[in-house]
């Protein structure tokens, strides 16, 4: 049994539920019998069921779980809430060994490893820990910072423009990039814009296209004290909408925390996006760069008050890929900026 390979498969499986688990993390589990055969697998998906990943996998395995190994991306919960504890379900199923990637940082649910070990089950911790933590970074980040994880999505020309001098900004990137953004939307619990974006672009902010397994629609969030036309697309019945009628970012955070949001896709313009960056609220930037130049127009970033290169905002490049004719780059925002 290649434990690392199986755990990487579980991590990939867990990502199928992005945008469908809040306030819970994304988790997947795989059951492997003594012969090394996968006899059960599953991931947590609150839209489909309250069952946690371990329970889904154990139900699939049935009696074949006796004496088997369970691999799971996050430490099995030790908490009885809306569902029984996963640790007890694993004990009851007769699992002999549990391998998990990341320890649960949530004090309410932590302690599953100790409970399993006390029941005589072999426990292995930390397999593919870095990969699993990155995959589950939105929830882990929320637990650590006590606020949602914010990803700022930007579509820009090569010279950093998001709108021309005449104000036009639609379709900077190509069709493939725009389709890719729809998946980003569906993987998020909320989509955030400022009031100016609503006035200028009148966005709908409902994911377009068909994506297998996605049956939920993110919350649409508008931040700003500007009055908006009640007939704007964002106020239709296609998805719920929250208008935080304030420029106070602390109030925005409070409203999102009240709704148990894990991940927010920020599709705001330079004013709100830059304000959030300055406030230390942007955790990640995904930028789509179109093969075009404007020379003049609106920059995707507003003034940050930086005068020297040594004070530049620090970003960590995660990956780069070609999407149609555009380049998609993902960056983590470093905390020491």
Task: Provide a short characterization of the protein structure.
By secondary structure, this protein is α/β, with parallel strands linked by helices. The protein is built from ten helices and 15 strands. It has an eight-stranded mixed beta sheet with strand order 10-9-8-11-6-12-15-14, sandwiched between helices. Strands 2-1-3-4-5 form a five-stranded mixed beta sheet, with helices on both faces. A two-stranded antiparallel sheet has the order 7-13.
Tell me about this structure.
With 337 residues, the chain is α/β, with parallel strands linked by helices. Helices cover 27% and strands 25% of the residues. It contains ten helices and 15 strands. It has helices at 3-14, 53-61, 86-93, 112-118, 129-135, 137-145, 175-186, 195-201, 249-258, 270-278, and strands at 28-32, 38-43, 69-74, 97-102, 122-125, 149-157, 161-163, 190-194, 219-223, 241-244, 263-266, 284-290, 298-299, 315-323, 326-333. An eight-stranded mixed β-sheet has the order 10-9-8-11-6-12-15-14, with helices on both faces. A five-stranded mixed β-sheet has the order 2-1-3-4-5, with helices on both faces. Strand 3, helix 3 (86-93) and strand 4 form a beta-alpha-beta unit. The longest helix has 12 residues, at 3-14. The two termini are 43 Å apart.
